[in-house]
Amino acid sequence: MLVVIHPNPEAASKQAAKIVADQVRRKTNSVLGLSTGNTPLATYAELIRMHREEGLDFSAVTTFNLDEYFGVPRDHPQSFYRHIHENFLDHINAKPENTHIPDGFSSDFAKTCMEYETAIKRAGGIDLQLLGIGRTGHIGFNEPTSSLASRTRLKTLSDETIADNSKISGEIPTISITMGIGTILEARRILLLATGGKKADAVAKALEGPITSSVSASALQMHGDVTVMLDEDAAANLTHRDYYRRVIDQTAKHSPERLGLK
Question: Is the pTM of this model over 0.85?
């Protein structure tokens, strides 16, 4: 696990964008896992800039979103379908038929979840999965006590998640459809982005605490290729900050491509 600590959220977000851009340039038909929420917005803005100003080409890229609210149609202002389109997909040249978002308004959720898993497999699996982390240490909507082997499914939201997300978009549903932890861990590479002091406790538990279903992001410790982009505030509770910096110095010298530097 590479843990990169930046001085501010802007630097962390831009470095995350460089890693995504490097993945797309190296493999033009990459399969990307996308996250919604406030945290990745600056990363998406930088990728849009790269597309417009540097010719970053998404025409052969396939995308899969992590999650969606239950019972929300795609044109609803709170839907993640609308969120990812307004903040990213509508501004790049990804083909609509290659972008996938769980259908939160489906009448047969068992079938919808199964078909989503099948679509990921047919696409060849996710090459790079972008993640945020919730205050409870969750990734996607895999709230505390989620099975570490879980697949795409319906999930009841915690009180903390409802409170946090309601501050962003008003009253929200209390159930979601989300990729499971087992699904996420099958991505070839994972990029976790976290900024701000409110995430410091969750980050520390996820990266340095025990692997436990009480903190679903701790399952990332079992993955062989995870890069974590943090600002100083989100990294404040980490015990091994100095060691992480030494590792990154060596990685920048010997494997700069892992940080999107080459």
Answer: yes
